[in-house]
Every structure is written in C-alpha cells, then in structure tokens.
Amino acid sequence: MIASFAAERVELRKKVADLCRDCREQEFIGIYGQEIGVYAGSPDQPGPLKQVIPVDIGRLPPAEIEDLRTGIICNQPQDKWRILEGYQN
Q: How far is residue 14 from each of residues 11, 19, 23, 48, 82, measured CA to CA in Å?
C-alpha cells in the first residue's frame, strides 16, 4: 500500500502476516526438495520453511527418508540440533 507520495519520495508499507501460535511454538524436520528442511508448526499443520540443511536425502537409508517424510517433531531446540547433527555425520 502507498502510505504517502510526493514528487521526490514514495513511502510504501506492507503488512506481513504473523505466524500462528503453533508455528511460533513448534517446529519439525522434514524434506525440502532433495534436502532436509526445518519447518515451523507440525507435520499435521505445517508452517513456513525456516531453514534448509544441505544434506542430500538420496544418500540416507530408506527408514530415515521415511521418518523425514512423516516429519520429526522437535520439542526442544537441543533436540533439533542433535537430530540434525546425526544427519550430517
């Protein structure tokens, strides 16, 4: 939306939608393309992508790929980092 306009200046404003409560409080690890993605929300109600982890999922065992397809819920930040470290080793 144009907030103000003058010959030498235009001021624009954009309202950005805030994340829902679940997306602010929860996150899960899943698949983004052929890599690992960290998403806001839960696998049942996914929110936006927050982070891409450059790990080629094609090199993972089938059981781990299926876990990622299902979505791995991270209840604590340290859980997320521990899980992601496991995929990068």
A: 10, 16, 21, 19, 37
